[in-house]
Request: fold
Amino acid sequence: MADFINGLNPIQKQAVTQFQGPVMVVAGPGSGKTRVLTFRIAYMLTQGVKPHEILALTFTNKAAKEMKERIEKVTNGSINSLWAGTFHSLFARILRIEANHIGYPSNFTIYDSDDSKSLLRTLIKEMSLNKDAYPPNQVLSKISAAKSNLMTPKAYVMDKNNMQADQIANRPHFHEIYKKYVDRCKAAGAMDFDDLLFRLYELFQKKPEVLDKYRARFKYLMVDEFQDTNFLQYAIIRKLTKYANSPENICIVGDDAQSIYGFRGATIDNILDFEKDFSNVKVFKLEQNYRSTLHIVAAANEVIGYNKRQIKKEIWTDQQEGEKIKVLKAVSDGEEGKRVADLILEYKNRHHVPNNEIAILYRTNSQSRVFEEHLRRYNIPYRIYGGQSFYQRKEIKDMMAYFRLVINPNDEEAFKRVVNYPKRGIGDTTLAGILSYAAANNISLFEAAKQAPLSARARTQINNFISIIESGIAKNQPDAAYATADYVANASGIIKSLKDENTVESLGRLENIEALLNGIKDFVEADEVVESDDEEEVDRSLASYVQNIALLTDQDNENSEFEQVTLMSVHAAKGLEFDAVFVVGMEENLFPSFMSMENEQDVDEERRLFYVAITRARKYLTLAFATSRYRFGKLVYNRSSRFLEELSAQHLENPNVLHGVPQTTVASSRATVTGIGKSRSAPKMVTRTAPADFKPCNPDDIEVGMYVLHLKFGKGKVLNIDGKNKSKVATIFFKEIDSPQRRIMLKFAKLQILTDGE
Reply:
């Protein structure tokens, strides 16, 4: 037996040496998954398997490169003929060789998303369709979803549910766009990113001799992060491995508890149902965690135990018990940011934790703002991982440019940035004419825009833009910073544009603008004591806010030589680890997200996301939440996340901060190494009706004094209704929940009127 596997634990060794037949390696967090993957391929090579007979599929090219480097180091040999890489890169490689079989040239072009959206804009224009009804981002997203589910344009039309949904969404011509898009791509000899999978499946389906060729070549198939595969990826994997007299030499490695990419099309069913698809599969569970202390591992086990559909496993560790998990309860998101920064200083000074071993994880990127501000105040260097600093994001810079123009209409850079954003038909020719007129008459661009000779159409659009800025100027009083900012944000059309786009990306940008407005609200209402030699009032104007932000962010490029605290979304943190981790914003409707409340499966994915977050920590884990935060300028009171309630008091340093009492208890004070309290009581549950029996009523039928039923909050009484039409907001008292008085926008509420009162 190869010497290099002697350092593996018994289960790891079994997973490495069993390379014949179907194998599933369920790899818990910190269990040495990468080591097992590397050593398994290296062991196969020592047993006579040729490198070219192995196909290793990963989700990043970086992972594939590191895997090959480790294998070469272990085996001291060249493995150039080993195919290891991402699904898209390796499948594109096959298509380069075989594309002629499905009518494509071998030198086909690969369209990126910008190419695809440009083509879609052209098609929408050619078809004389309303571009607002068919935003390219949204159309491309729908095409991608159709391809990922193996739905051709012809199959799409045959599906009555799709056609009906498009009619309801006022997009009846989507199927025509889809067909024209596919035809135009093929005519151009081009494939988009999804085609690299879709067309390979088509190739294997239509040309069995080609499929047989690659079945014969790739005798062993390995798939990393299998829980993140989608329907189409698994369909291709099955093509290569499920056939008559197949040895089914497939090894999948993954963890259902870390399946967090449902929004990208990944389906957890692939890993949960793998044992049904491959009946003779051998399962190895890597349950020993080498990363985290006992309290962290125990808490992770407790949380994931609430998910119903899962591969049962119990992660354990023989590491020391370590510090208990801290819970930070703040009265506002501003205080949350300050307390997290304070604790980071404590970890640095008391425990000597370096900056690069500290991470702040949040559910949405818009949450970074408040933590960035406090880290800057404390002069703690940081970096935004997998994204830009909050104030460097395009939508924030665009919004700030509008604010700058309202403060100073002669700001030429701000003018050029947003004069045609959102698009309002002001083209390069019009802008060039304004620039030329301004230079010739020695006046600002804003004044030139008012005076320059323009076509009738251009004059109308320019006047609309000028009107937005001038109305903002009129509203901009010293004591009205938030009101002005809120007005300009809406009048500019940016918010409407992002709402209309209605994609995951646009909703994220919308959240960032909301966070910016909330920051202005905080700035206006801040009651911090300011030390000063005089008694002048603190300037809370919009101009003062914009100046503060400019000074806050006007820094030299950060020097990579300095260790930096990492800020990132939980999704971006997958696969990473740190000595100290802060998981922030642990509130209902934030984490778990309000978008997950419709069904149990989405809540389960949010819980898996929380599981990923807490298992990033080696030594110190802090969970923070705020009892209030601004949302669209209104102070909203929050209940702590249900996930906090799923943690036993024995693992928390200060459990009493959660509603004043410990959340759960365990029957025995003897903590097992897994930390699972088998008989602990579940969190308080609200009396609910079965979703099948729930019939939401028309929001317009709800009146003050009525009793209503909500799927999550239970029974409640309508105390008040304010607002008009689609903006009606009801104040409802739900007696069965903590913080029982809730304000809910009726058009989103989904309430059932109860005829029998209480």
Notes: Confidence is low (pLDDT under 50) at residues 527-536, 553-561, 659-688. The CA atoms of residues 110 and 395 lie 28 Å apart. The radius of gyration is 29 Å.
